[in-house]
Specification:
- The complex is a heterodimer.
- Chain A is of the alpha+beta class.
- Chain A has one domain (about 10-185): Ribosomal Protein S5, domain 2 (2-Layer Sandwich), CATH 3.30.230.70.
- In chain A, about 40% of the residues lie in helices and about 25% in strands.
- Chain A has four helices and six strands; from the N terminus they run βαβαββαββα.
- Chain A has helices at about 40-55, 80-95, 120-125, 150-185, and strands spanning about 15-20, 65-70, 105-110, 115, 130-135, 140-145.
- In chain A, the strands form two sheets. A four-stranded antiparallel beta sheet of chain A has the order 4-3-5-6, with helices on both faces. A two-stranded parallel ribbon of chain A has the order 1-2.
- The longest helix of chain A has about 35 residues, at about 150-185.
- Chain B is an alpha+beta fold.
- Chain B has a domain at about 25-70: OB fold (Dihydrolipoamide Acetyltransferase, E2P), CATH 2.40.50.100.
- Chain B has helices spanning about 125-130, 130-135, 230-245, 255-265, 275-294; strands at about 25-30, 35, 40, 45-50, 50-55, 60-65, 65-70, 85-90, 95-100, 105-115, 140-150, 155-160, 165, 170-175, 185-190, 195-200, 205-210.
- Chain B has a five-stranded mixed barrel. In chain B, strands 1-6-7-3 form a four-stranded mixed beta sheet, with no helix packed on it. A four-stranded antiparallel beta sheet of chain B has the order 14-17-16-15, with helices on one face.
- In chain B, helix 3 (about 230-245) packs across helix 4 (about 255-265) and helix 4 (about 255-265) crosses helix 5 (about 275-294).
- The longest helix of chain B is centred in the last third of the chain and has 19 residues, at about 230-245.
- Classes of the chains: A alpha+beta, B alpha+beta.
- Chains A and B meet through helix 4 of A and loops of B.
């Protein structure tokens, strides 16, 4: 159903509405964050919306709204990725048709070695950071974001590392989903 | 006052399927290719990409001749003509009420589909529009039948019979729509002393059986007399039984609810919500249902 303003309802597909927030106790020191004013949260919510609009088959739900609210309980690097993976499972559990799983992972470089799934100290170190959201079956990229500068030659290696991590994640998520299906049917 | 019991969370053991299903079910997740054969027509839960039929929800594949569809575990209610639903009024608009029925879009109850008090048959005038709020307000529960479905999936309801209308005192249980079995009638008077309406949309309404069966008002006047304690106990027990059946994923219909109620009689009403007691009751119910099937 459409909640909030009716005028934003799209006639031929569903609107995906995402909200992203960090709990106060999620990082090392407890910080009280403004409820919705945080710019980083707004940006990550927009990224979530873009990734899921690419994955959910929205044309099957005209004039409706799909809400995805993500709250991070423990932040240790890769917040957005954890949010994407959790939201994928949530959307699948709700029975909303999707093209494929959306698996996300960060990748970076430390002195020529590509690293996958960076932790918070590694992210804070200031090196280049690549965030990749992938649809594993077809290999289509839903979102690709790079912060800090990266040499063009190193891009391939980092992308490959992130892709591998995403595919490994897909295997884990898939196993969980199938176990649950087997349990219930 | 009884003390509060607390317990630590423990992984749930699902009661496994007792009867072996005929054949292995083909379980899929989004992104899995179901078949590359172009001879099949695609149904719900699938989409076509580059001549491959790919699943879009996580569930079991159902094949009917040439039609392939994937049935998901948990979906919103999809209205079908002739279904009984129980819904809650969310909005009062110009000539209609918007009813929430656990579906993708709010269902619509048009003023012309509603019986006037007194059972008159006349064209609805402007005064009727202004008096809409006297009949049904936001937050009221109604039982209705689906008359038709709009192109975007919203259902249009009607209460054109005396058995539909505003619901009075009782208990609502919300379950997944896939657990309510399709039957000839969804209004049941259980012999234990309460009545139950099994809405196809997953809303189940339990209420005390009315003594006199003739109501000329068409279900508008709500009976606000105090309900006796014995009836309340029966209703609470039924509600806990339904919750127990739902957690073990058993189909809901009048016989299963009745057997579950009888199996739960030796326990106290509040004990039914404990996991071990729930498992025991549901096992017994399942056993009796299997015996019934023969």
């Amino acid at each position: 159903q459409m909640r909030g303003s009716r005028s934003k309802a799209l006639a031929e597909r569903a609107l995906v509405n995402c909200r992203y927030s960090l709990a106060a106790f999620s990082t090392g020191e407890r910080r009280r964050r403004p409820p919705h004013g945080d710019r980083q949260c707004a940006e990550l919510a927009l990224h979530l919306q873009q990734s899921f609009e690419a994955a959910i088959l929205t044309h099957l739900y005209p004039r409706s709204q799909i809400d995805i609210y993500v709250q991070i309980l423990q932040a240790d690097g890769g917040n957005y990725c954890a949010g994407v993976n959790a939201a994928t499972l949530a959307v699948m559990d709700a029975g909303i048709p999707m093209r494929d799983y959306v698996c996300a992972s960060t990748a970076g470089l430390a002195e020529e070695t590509p690293l996958a799934d960076l932790s918070a100290p590694e992210e804070a170190a200031g090196g280049p950071r690549l965030v990749l959201a992938l649809l594993p079956a077809t290999g289509q990229i839903a979102l690709l974001q790079l912060s800090a500068r990266l040499h063009q030659e190193r891009l391939e290696a980092a992308l490959e590392a992130a892709g591998q991590a995403c595919r490994a994640l897909h295997a884990v998520l898939d196993r969980g989903v199938r176990e649950r299906l087997r349990e219930v049917t | 006052m009884a003390a509060i019991t607390m317990r630590l969370p423990v992984p749930r053991r699902a009661v496994g399927p007792s009867a072996p299903r005929g054949g292995e079910k083909h379980l899929v997740a989004p992104g899995d290719t179901i078949t590359t054969d172009t001879g099949y027509m695609r149904g719900h839960g699938t989409y076509v990409e580059e001549e491959k039929l790919i699943a879009s929800v996580a569930g079991a594949v159902e094949r009917v001749n040439k039609l392939v569809c994937v049935k998901a575990l948990k979906t919103r209610y999809n209205g079908e003509v002739g279904d009984i639903v129980v819904g809650r009024i969310t909005e009062v608009q110009q000539k209609r009420w918007k009813v929430e029925t656990n579906s993708r879009l709010d269902s619509v109850l048009l003023l012309s589909s509603m019986n006037l008090p007194g059972g008159e048959l006349r064209r609805r005038s402007a005064e009727d529009e202004l008096a809409m709020r006297d009949y049904l307000q936001e937050g009221d529960l109604i039982s209705a039948e689906v008359q038709s479905v709009f192109s975007d999936g919203a259902a249009s309801l009607h209460t054109r019979s005396l058995k539909y209308g505003k619901l009075g005192q009782g208990v609502l249980v919300q379950v997944s729509p896939s657990l309510v079995k399709r039957q000839k009638t969804h209004f049941h008077d259980l012999p234990c002393g309460a009545s139950v309406i099994l809405g196809n949309n997953g809303f189940i309404w339990i209420y005390p059986t009315a003594e006199q069966k003739d109501e000329e008002a068409g279900g508008f006047t709500t009976n606000l007399e105090p309900v006796p304690l014995s009836d309340r106990e029966v209703i609470s027990r039924l509600r806990n039984c339904i919750v127990a059946l739902v957690t073990q994923q058993l189909m809901l219909f009048d016989t299963s609810i009745l057997y579950c109620y009888e199996a739960s009689l030796p326990h106290q009403i509040k004990d039914i919500l404990k996991p071990e007691v729930m498992e025991e009751i549901v096992l017994e119910t399942r056993q009796r249902l299997l015996d019934l099937e023969g």
